[in-house]
Amino acid sequence: IMHEYLKSHYHIEAIFGFHIMPFIKKHHIVSSSDTLMYASEEINIEIQGKMMHVGMRELGIDSIKIASELIQRYESIDVHDAFIHIGEICGGNARNVVCDHIVMKGTLRAKDEQCLKELKKRILFIHRMMNKQYKVLIHMSFQSKYPAVINHQSLYQKLQSFLPIYTLDKPYMLSEDFSYYQSRRSLPPHAQAMIRKLRQKSS
Question: Which residues contact 97 (CB under 8 A, 6 or more apart)?
């Protein structure tokens, strides 16, 4: 629909989006002449160790310990304007057993595609090192992905000409499916701004 029908039937020359954000100050419209929102990608990380009774734990490979070390190593990754966050961990089946399998779910956030690629590169390097060090299998898979929201500069200037725009000092680390408009080069240029929904007065 976006790719063909809208352009051919309505002769669209630009796309503007307005996103409601509850934490913005009243009567403010916030935007950016460049990156407004980070790119994001959802990840699943599986750690396959070796199950063993805790009484013989030295013969097992503890996936819980490896997961905790992984998270610490993730925190030490130094990529400008990019980071990894683990928000869910699942694993283990008994208190007296060395856990052999862990699943961690998280998200990658980056200011642009290049930062995202560098972040993935550093993460995969950590996985290879730990695979070799602990004789464990660490596998990372990717799910849904959102590109960064990067405003078209001339459209941003048009917004500024008729709206009281407050310019962001730095991008939001949120992500937004509005970014898919920019992934289609055949579509017109776009710009997005953030507004705060005002409470309706009770009648």
Answer: 51, 52, 53, 54
pLDDT tens column, 166-177: 888 899 998 888
Q: Which two tokens stand for residue 134?
A: 């602990």
CA distance linking residue 187 with residue 155, whole number of Å: 14
Contact 40, 175 (CB under 8 A): yes
Q: Are 103 and 44 in contact (CB under 8 A)?
A: yes
Report whether 39 contacts 113 (CB < 8 A). Answer: yes
pTM recorded for the entire structure? 0.83
Please report the beta strands in the chain, taking only residues with DSSP state E, as ranges in sequence order: 15-20, 29-31, 35-37, 39-48, 52-53, 82-91, 97-98, 101-110, 137-146, 149-150, 165-167, 190-195
Could you read off the pLDDT of 100-136 as tens digits, one per residue?
999 999 999 999 999 999 999 999 999 999 999 999 9
